[in-house]
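#random but structural
TW: two for the price of one
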Amino acid sequence: MPWDRVQLNDGHSIPGIGFGTWKLGNGRGSIDQVDQALSVGFSHIDTAQFYANEEQAGIAIRESGLARNDIFVTTKYSGVDGLDIETSVQNSLMKLGLRYIDLYLIHFPWLAQPDIPTAWKKMEALKDQGLVKSIGVSNFEVYHLEILLASAKIKPAANQILLHPYVYAQQAPLLEYCAANNIAVEAYSVLIPVTSLPGGPVDAPLKSVADRLGASVDQVLLAWAKAKGVVVVTMSTKKYRLEGYLAAGDLVLTPDDIARIDEAGAKQNFASVFLRRLALVALAGGAALGVCGYLGIDLI
């Protein structure tokens, strides 16, 4: 299935689709889910300190019997327990049971303490020491990248960001900036239009394309993201869905298909929908405020 590897700016490459562990929690169930993803053909596992399941991901990797160089592992510095980058990467390596990490990301720009240039120097040192093969960032906007690149000796290999049709217009300048600077983009939450926001404007073009291709709408969304040139990070606990996600690599959308999905996506304001949903989960309190702050939504 042609989810081709994507070349990174440091000479390494990354599988075009990855299995994310964000919502898996920990315990035996998360081990089984990662094992299932590997068994159906995923070769890229994406985890993070914050997800609290690096250890479970590592167990599944070892139990898979796959050779280390056949699996690409991403994890992220999330600032857990206030630990610094140097200590955190050692903890991640220990939990994963690995000698090196393929891609290590700063999870959010505000975690780059005391500032982005200083934090990035620490990331560069990890690469120089051979603890990680590639270094990158997550949820960085253009201005964060501008600060980073102004003093970087090593460019970020990747920037992992939120991307789906309802935020594509908003994210387009960031995509263009990353492309101009040879920074690969990884996309998470690509399936939000069908999993969390059904009934929106993109439903019609997605269904039309899916019917024509004999595919599911979630497969069409993944094919849309692939057409944008990004690496997709997704997940499901259902084996048949994971198999379908891999099969989506075979789908080829026409320029008209992509344009219709883009146009439909631009008709819905993702931030306003997010706020309406947020009102229903007000118990999240301070955490909700933090998310809104990151999305640039002023609640006051």
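TW: number two ↓
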Amino acid sequence: MVAFKWSPIAACFLLLQATAFVSSQAVTVTVSAQSTDYSVLRSIESELVSLEAATITSVASAAASATSSSAAQTYTVSVGIDHKFRPDVVQANAGDIVEFNFFPPNHSVVRAEYMLPCIPYENTGRGKVGFFSGFRPVDAFLDDPPTWNLRINDTDPIFYYCSAPGSCNNFAMIGVINPNKSVSLETQRSLALQAAYVMNPGDPFPPEASSSMASLTASPTSTSALPSSTAATASTTPTPAPAEEEKNDDDLSTGAIIGIALGGAAILLLAAALFYYFFSRSRTLKQPFASPLSHLLRVTARICTNPAAQFSCQYSLRTTEAAL
């Protein structure tokens, strides 16, 4: 038996040979596996392409059939014949068209809110957007009258009215699209006949309406503004006659006071004279009393020269003379 002696060079050579053999076998297996995977993928891809084509064809045919079965409809409404919309009720789907044909003399179509029949829709709340056809004057019934089209975007109820003077509140010229159980055309028509005014889009509220709304929402300051302004206007107008009359009243009052004072003094003097006369006469009947009494009468007469005291003095003098 021959002994084999390992050397590092021989070991390295054998290791390299083994690695090369394993690598070649792995590459062969990998290539065959990749070829098998690619063939499977190609078959799956062809099946998907066929299925996609069939799906697209079926969807296109379904869409075409749906379009043909639900094409947009056009509904015609005459405006103004006998102050009415004919018909006044339209049931339309989203995408349909409502065509308004105008007849004499001059009418319009304005969107309204339910329960507010003669006021533009946008005036009934923030963010609301209405529509307005404008006025379409017509002199005669035409075979091809002026028209205005309205596209329906949903199936919610849409009320509208004619804003020509008197059409809404006198003739209840209103209509509705897609009414439901929550609204009533008859209720809207009844409220229209009770309306006090009719508005066009862009018009301000009438003074009556604005004042009534202000009275409901404003503070008492607004109600007191009118009297204060009236008082200011009245104060700027001069009134000299009452002032002069008031001055005369003051003068008469002062004169009356002076007259009363003088009259009272005269009465006191006369009373003193009478008292002195009777007292002296009771003491002695021999002493003449004519001289002091005459002096008092002269003094009283001078006091009575004042016009304000004439009445009181004349009464006192008559009393004194009667006593003498």
